[in-house]
Amino acid sequence: GKKVNKKDERKAKKQAAAEARRKAQEDAARAEREKYKHLFGELPVIRSLPGDRQGRKFTRVGALNKTLIGEKVLVRARVHKFTGSGNLCFMFLRDQHFTVQIAIAKSETVPKALVTFASKIPKESLVDVTALVSAPKVEGGLVTSATQQEVELVAESIFVMSQANPVPVQITDLETPQPLLDEQDRLVAEIDSRMEPHLEIIRAIDAKGTAGKTQVADAVKNMSEKRAAVEKQKVLVQKLQAELAEAEKLVVQLAEAAEAAEASLRNVKAEVQARGKYVMSEEDAAQKKEAEAALEPLRKEKESAKKVLSVGLNTRLDNRVIDLRTTANQAIFRIQSGVCQLFREVLYKHGFVEIHSPKLISTASEGGANVFKVGYFKTSAYLAQSPQLYKQMAVNSDLQRVFEVAPVFRAEDSNTHRHMTEFVGLDMEMMFYEHYHEVLDVLEEMFLYIFDGLNERFSTEIEAVRRQFPFDDLKYKRPSMRFTWPDIIKLLRENGEEIGDYDDIGTTQEKLLGRIIKEKYDVDFYLVDKFPIDIRPFYTMVDPENPRYSNSYDFFVRGEEICSGAQRVHDPDMLVERAKHHEVDLEKIRSYIEAFKYGAYPHGGGGVGMERIVMLFLGLGNIRRSSLFPRDPKRLAP
Predict the structure, then answer these.
(1) Three-state SS at 605
(2) d(CA 126, CA 133)
(3) 1 pLDDT exceeds 90?
(4) Would you call 561 a catalytic residue per the annotation?
(5) Quick check: is 344 catalytic?
(6) Per the residue annotation, which of 320, 334, 350, 419 is the catalytic one?
(7) Catalytic residue, candidates 418, 536, 603, 625
(8) Could you say which of 42, 175, 183, 412 is catalytic?
(9) Per-residue pLDDT at 6
(10) 78 classed as catalytic
(11) What percent of the chain has pLDDT over 70?
């Protein structure tokens, strides 16, 4: 038969032995899983089959406290992080913004296989854990790295309900406190400034070599242009030879000139090639070596300064499902929910009715151009910029006091920290009896009720946000600080701003005004009344005492506008006059004007951006942090 190579034979035996060991290990692991399948493993996908509902009692992580010590609980939560190895390890479970430590230790009832299984569960997986609630066996008796500090769980069984794939960003990186990131950025910038002189030396030396190459490129381009001219002369020579026999002498002269030009080009080429061969001088080489040596420790210092991974806002938003799981974000969106709850509560107490106006409309809500146009069967429609016109009509339909919580669409190409193309509007409108300040009073009370309610009911969530994004508590007074437009113009001028009596103020001036008022009156919340009429919408009532002003107002928080409102024009003739002044197409708002022809209440109201309230109350600095899935000119997903 065929002779067998001994080397191949030994190799085959080793492979067979390795395969046998692998199979034995798999069989042992399978047998162990079978033996302890009542203690750990992966659960089948819950499909709501008959018999799936067994009535098991689950305990939320947030409900775990020292009153449960000694009791057995069943918890469903995410694997937040994992530490330890061998026969003892610790897993941290997270349920919403609550965390608890769970000890997983080999014992008479807990096999080593369970500890090993638990240690391999990917972060963010959902697990069902049966455990005994016990007092923490740590110094001081508190697990300071968990929210449920007074207890820890001792695992008895662990089952994976939904296994997570590797996450694109780690929760621990997403939860890095902002002050740490700011300090890291400061250190890196300071090191960069120390590196710059050395880098400048290296760039200058390297540029010498680059200059030679640039000269060659320029010369080659020049040669090409001259060669083209020579070729043109050759063509001319050929033409003259064919057509002008009597010009033989001229032809000879041109041919000689062309040859001389060719020779000149050859000389230029040789000279350029010589110039392009840059040789670094000994002095430059020494300088560059010295600069590189000085940079080396600075580069190491820069790397060591980067102790934490900085996850940018765009990366967070691209992975929003993961980002929303952080403790701070869990708190932010509970606070956001609280804002809507408190908004509804205070207005219900004042006899308001919640309405729901259409978002597909036939013309721009406020007569402006910043609207999204959409196809609507055989015609076009627009996404509503606000419920303004409809809430006014609702007031005059005898609902009298109305509010709405609904999306608002703005087709503004504004890529700022406070603008979005879609946000949630908190709008209110009400009739009044004698003076539009009746509306101002309700709006003021509404804001104070929201601020008080957040501080009283959401103190835990506020502190959770503050741990990652530190901010000062919002300062406000009762009654709130009120200013007129001339008041704020005077304040701005006293602080060096050049501004006309009726000029609008920009973002920079808004922020300056906020700082001035904070320094002078120690408040972050205030309102400004009597805006110039020319910077307000067409339906705003003109101030009867000074037609350059209007019965309109804005509320501000931390130097940024948070609510805009006014007394509305309720007389149809006056409304037509104001619309014409603003060059609004009367045909497009005919149904709106008609609503005021059958007896209309004097009325006013305001519109508030929900996300802006949250951003400014918590000092988040960017409205995208307070929007669940933000929409702006550059973001339409997720």
Answers:
(1) strand
(2) 20
(3) no
(4) yes
(5) no
(6) 419
(7) 418
(8) 412
(9) 76
(10) no
(11) 94
CA distance 580 to 246: 84
Which is catalytic among the residues 94, 316, 570, 612?
A: 612
Instruction: Determine whether 412 is an active site residue.
Output: yes
Partnered with residue 361 across adjacent β-strands are 382
* First-last CA distance in the chain: 68
Q: What is the rounded average pLDDT of the residues 548-554?
A: 96
How many angstroms separate the Cα of 503 from the Cα of each of 312, 381, 495, 533, 569?
37, 34, 16, 11, 23
> CA of 500: how far to CAs of 162, 486, 559, in Å?
63, 10, 20
Tokens describing residue 301: 């210092």
Of 131-140, 177-186, 303-312, give the lowest mean pLDDT range.
Answer: 303-312
The verdict on whether 590 is a catalytic residue reads no
- From the list 162, 457, 564, 582, the catalytic residue is 564
Count of alpha carbons within 13 Å of 485, Cβ hemisphere only? 22
The count of residues in the chain is 638
Q: How far apart are CA 347 and CA 612, in angstroms?
A: 19
Q: What residue type is 228 in one-letter code?
A: A
* 197, containing H or E segment: helix 178-243
How do residues 393-437 score in pLDDT, each as one tens digit?
A: 999 999 999 999 999 999 999 899 999 999 999 999 999 999 999
Choosing from 94, 198, 401, 410, which is the catalytic residue? Answer: 410
- Cβ-proximal residues to 87 (8 Å cutoff; 6+ apart), any chain: 105, 106, 112, 115
Tokens of 517: 């008022």
Number of helices and strands in the chain (H, E)? 17, 17
**The token pair that represents 578 in the structure block:** 């104001």
The one catalytic residue in 320, 445, 561, 631 is: 561
pLDDT of residue 246: 64
Does the annotation count 365 as an active-site position? no
* Structure tokens given for 609: 């951006």
| The residue to which tokens 């996850």 are assigned | 311
Known active-site residue 612: yes
Segment 171-193 mean pLDDT: 91
